[in-house]
What we know:
mainly alpha; 7 helices; two-stranded antiparallel ribbon
Amino acid sequence: MKLKANRRRAAPPEIAAGGLRLDAFVPYRLSVLTNTISSTLARRYATRFGVSIPQWRVMAVLGETPGQSVNELAARTRMDKVSVSRAVAGLVRSGRVLRRADPADGRRCELRLSAKGRQIYRQIVPMAHHYQSELLGRLDPVERRTLERLIGHLDEIARSLAADDRGEGE
């Protein structure tokens, strides 16, 4: 889907009046929603497995695509490299992730789930699916499809704006 360039609209009255009502500011609302969801999942994962949200995100990516580097994990999860490095270090210390030098490029380290990490991953995946079902189960099918479409579209727009900010959009 191609984004329409410079689709400008008048600012909503609550913003145009010079103030910012947080309850009407979509980036803030999405951040609060994400934090609410993440903290709920974090409690569930921490209680049962001692895994933080950044660690789970790393494990989820490695469970799906083993052999990633820290830089690739940071790009995939959109977490900063420091957070990813800390999560990886904790997972390596706990024996959940294995690190080895890439045979093709000694400067790059490949990361994989260990047997212990794969065991935890296999237990968390159903929990994650269950939580998503709990969260989305109260939406009707049309609302769910609309939400998926809107999330995809907002992600595309946000990426385009980020590229513009980096000077890549020209």
